[in-house]
Write a structure and sequence with these properties.
With 411 residues, the chain is of the alpha+beta class. The chain is built from 13 helices and 20 strands.
């Protein structure tokens, strides 16, 4: 891929994604797949004004070895130095950039039960610190090609060609045009205008129906707002885009208010394994039954990670006629596939969807109906015939989606 294109993408991630400005500290987390791009991204962060940029490397095969050879107790222990590192981040609040490139099947065959229990142990220590950081720092998740990921998507070509094709697919779906920053300004405005319209309706619940069997009604929190595109941090009020790409407008629903069944329309890559052709049935807001042609045990494990893992944390609206879906590609990566069409998420909800959340404690947000969990896992439910009807506070209804796409226009 041409270096000029890589620089434009890196600049987009640094400036529009993570919102880097003068004096920022930055941490980039990346796999070993694209060291050249990481170097370019570090340079763009400094050009945007960062005073310090650090890179933390990971390698999926090492994670597999750790799960295999460490005892569950060792695997689940958070060392004192790790706690000190997290507290240092809480004190400094660096901007975080997460570059995804891992193999969708890279952890296939590991002891998922052992890994899950270890993660549960670690999360008990990590969660209180993360809760203190919530909404206070800038962050961005983006992606770069890994060879095995690229070959998963394009199996019929050489590794080199597959990586080049994946680079192009990333650029196309992330709006890396001649002027990607200006293009993202326009995109963010469209998302903001749609949020404004949805928030003006007074929605009490959303009803999802599709010919594949999806028939689900999800209740809303009275003081919750639809959000999309860029966000602002608490305190410094700095603007950033958490996801590149993003096509979604999302809201956190009321915990305990979901009834019916929903069918996934794309595979879910969860912890390095694929869950395919699955459904989830909800009663009183809780996932009480799951079925899957592949990965059913892993799906059950996912919704039992903690008490909140079986409840919804997000409803996201994405038109079927999106750049990602129109690419005709299945990315096997949630960052992209969740932005191909409508999705839901089980697990943790977003407290910043609440009106005046900045004046509330996290406990008060949970009391208002925001779900609390150690996980947040998106799964895709959008289809070409999906219809979503909003039931409004005044007793009327409004069509939100028809035949998979927006049923309303904005100026």
């Amino acid at each position: 891929m041409k270096k000029t294109e890589l620089k434009k993408y890196a600049s987009l991630i640094a400036r529009t994604g993570a919102g880097i400005t003068k004096g920022d500290e930055v941490i980039i987390q990346a796999e070993l797949d694209q060291p050249e791009f990481v170097e370019i991204l570090v340079a763009e962060c400094y050009k945007a004004g960062a005073k310090k940029v650090m890179v933390e490397w990971s390698h999926q095969p090492l994670q597999k070895l750790h799960v295999r050879y460490r005892t569950q107790k060792v695997l689940g222990t958070v060392e004192d130095w790790e706690v000190a590192k997290l507290r240092h981040r809480l004190d400094r609040l660096p901007a975080m950039i997460y570059l995804l490139s891992e193999d969708p099947d890279g952890l296939a065959g590991i002891n998922q039960e052992k890994n899950s229990k270890a993660m549960q142990s670690r999360f008990k220590v990590i969660k209180p610190i993360r809760d203190e950081m919530e909404n206070k720092y800038k962050w961005c998740i983006a992606a770069v090609p890994g060879k095995k990921w690229a070959k998963k998507m394009f199996p019929g070509v050489s590794s080199y060609r597959a990586v080049e094709m994946l680079w192009q697919a990333i650029f196309d779906t992330c709006r890396v045009t001649d002027d990607p920053i200006a293009e993202w300004d326009r995109h963010n405005k469209d998302l903001a205008d749609r949020c404004e319209h949805l928030n003006s309706l007074g929605i009490e619940s959303l009803e999802y129906k599709s010919k594949n069997g999806t028939d689900l009604t999800v209740g809303m929190i009275p003081d919750c707002l639809f959000m999309g595109g860029g966000e602002y941090t608490l305190g410094k009020n700095e603007y950033f885009n958490p996801n590149i790409p993003t096509e979604e407008i999302f809201i956190t629903p009321m915990r305990g208010k979901a009834e019916g069944i929903v069918y996934a329309t794309k595979p879910l890559s969860y912890r390095g394994e694929l869950i395919e052709n699955f459904s989830i049935r909800f009663e009183d807001g809780k996932a009480v039954e799951v079925k899957a042609e592949k990965g059913e045990d892993l799906l059950r494990q996912m919704i039992s990670m903690d008490e909140g893992a079986a409840y919804l944390g997000e409803c996201a609206l994405v038109p079927y006629d999106s750049p990602i879906n129109n690419s005709g590609l299945l990315f096997y990566n949630t960052l992209f596939d969740e932005n191909a069409c409508c999705h839901l998420a089980v697990g943790n909800g977003f407290s910043n969807c609440l009106k005046n959340f900045e004046n509330m404690t996290l406990e008060e947000c949970h009391e208002a109906g925001i779900n609390d969990s150690m996980i947040h896992v998106d799964f895709m439910i959008g289809s070409e015939d999906l219809c979503i009807t909003a039931h409004l506070k005044d007793g009327s209804t409004a069509e939100i989606f028809k035949d998979g796409n927006w049923a309303f226009e904005v100026k």
